[in-house]
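re the bet — no i am not wrong, look at it urself. input seq straight from the record:
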Amino acid sequence: MLRVMIAEDEDIIRKGLIYTMDWMGMDCMVVAEAANGQEGFLKILEHKPDVVIADICMPFMDGIEMIKEASRSVKFKSILLTSYAEFEYARRAISAGVSEYLLKPVDEEKLAVLRKKLG
């Protein structure tokens, strides 16, 4: 079972991801959530998830920087969520070693396909 952490500053989106997705059906368990990048960074270090799903634009530390910094200490796969289809975000995500890049709103079927790719 994959251990998942979700970092998203918009409460309704974060709670929606946690409570409406069929995580058990995807053989996953949400072990932590964070409302900003700094909190997410600390939760990654504490919970050592297998997968981190993070928004790009968050207060205190953006999702790309959070992933980049945390991956120096913890090994995990990452999926970035964004409302922006801008190349600069994608370029930064690639340089941070992000596994996948999804546009909001998140489709549960796409997430299930990614689950299979992530191991």
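see?? The longest strand covers residues 28-34. told u. also The chain has five helices and five strands. so pay up
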